[in-house]
Specification:
- By secondary structure, chain A is an all-alpha fold.
- Chain A has 4 helices and no strands.
- Chain B is mainly α.
- Helices cover 72% and strands 0% of the residues of chain B.
- The mean pLDDT of chain B is 87.
- The chains are: A mainly alpha, B mainly alpha.
- The interface between A and B is large, with 70 and 99 residues.
């Protein structure tokens, strides 16, 4: 441990405070007992789809597209997820299949 | 008694939905415990961080700071606000769904991570299961996976031999599947496509470290710009 226990505790609390503020902010701004402006209901409807797109890109943000293997394991595995999901529509199967393929690709194919 | 079967029903409905998160958190939480142990922080510290600071990417970002002994809580606090700014989207999206759930909302918001959000924003409870119990089960299961995996990683230290390389892709696959689930509904396609495009643009312009906030601003601007401004 490079920090003292008290210092470590304060660092942990700083992370916790920052995280919790970002989680609570919308609920503080628009409390339940007051009618929220109409646009928040609209945002509640349209944001989840956009956010899922953001999260997919966020997960792939550290892939290097200009050096070998040019993101091939990621692209192939995401494609496998999409095809499996189109074919069977089973969430668990799509995730397990895509992940298994990715593990084989990064451990045995593109090493 | 009725209450009890209701809760058990909620758990039975929620558990299968959380299995991908169990895989992803199991792997990433374990790795986090190992990483902290390598930096000199045993299972008690890493588990405390996971239980209190619950937020994967920021915990990973803070690990090297702890290991190197740089003590600057204010800087870590500000960094956390930036890394986790995406949570604001989750809260805005969940205002309606988390309405009228009483004190349960404290736990729900406390544990609203990326993965939990992706499930509670997409799935609805089956008939006979209350919204509150269903969302609580998903949230608390995911939370406990993360904390337990961290503890296990901290205890195991470097004893692990199984090659888990690539297992973290389970989370990417989870988000991709939930994106496709949203895509099924025609009215969500424009918003989903905008999300992908704005995030990709932001990644290209600002790079992987600063992608989140510009992407959020772009998404909001594009959504608002494309909407008839009747609410003004």
């Amino acid at each position: 441990m490079a920090l003292t226990p008290l210092q470590t505790l304060l660092m942990i609390l700083a992370v916790a405070a920052g995280t919790q503020i970002t989680r609570w902010l919308p609920f503080w701004l628009f409390p339940e007992n007051r009618r929220p402006p109409a646009w928040t209901a609209w945002l509640s409807r349209v944001l989840p789809a956009a956010t899922m797109g953001l999260l997919v890109v966020y997960c792939l943000k550290d892939v290097s597209w200009t050096a070998s293997p040019y993101g091939a394991p990621e692209l192939l595995s995401v494609a496998a997820v999409a095809l499996l999901h189109r074919w069977r529509g089973n969430v668990l199967l799509s995730i397990a299949g895509g992940t298994a393929l990715y593990m084989v690709l990064v451990q045995a194919v593109f090493v | 008694m009725k209450e009890k079967t209701g809760r058990r029903g909620a758990l039975r409905a929620a558990f299968p939905a959380t299995v991908p998160v169990l895989t992803g958190y199991g792997c990433l939480g374990l790795a986090y415990g190992l990483l902290m142990a390598a930096g000199g922080y045993g299972p008690l510290w890493s588990t405390l961080m996971s239980a209190v600071g619950f937020g994967g990417s920021m915990q990973y970002a803070a690990a090297p700071l702890l290991a190197s002994g740089s003590f600057d809580p204010l800087q870590v606090f500000l960094l956390t606000l930036m890394v986790n700014a995406r949570h604001i989207f989750y809260g805005l999206s969940m205002l309606e769904r988390y309405k009228g759930l009483g004190r349960a909302r404290l736990l729900l918001v406390y544990t609203l991570s990326d993965e939990t959000f992706s499930l509670v924003s997409t799935l609805d409870p089956p008939e006979g299961v209350s919204r509150r119990d269903f969302f609580l089960c998903i949230s608390l299961l995911n939370y406990s996976y993360w904390v337990a995996a961290t503890a296990l990683g901290g205890v195991l230290g470097n004893l692990l031999a199984f090659n888990t390389r690539g297992l973290e892709f389970a989370l990417t696959a989870l988000f991709a599947v939930l994106f496709l689930e949203q895509w099924k509904h025609r009215e969500n396609r424009r918003s989903g496509g905008l999300g992908l495009a704005c995030a990709a643009l932001s990644l290209a312009v600002f790079g992987p470290e600063r992608l989140v906030i510009p992407a959020m601003v772009l998404i909001l601007a594009a959504l608002l710009g494309g909407r008839k401004l009747t609410w003004l």
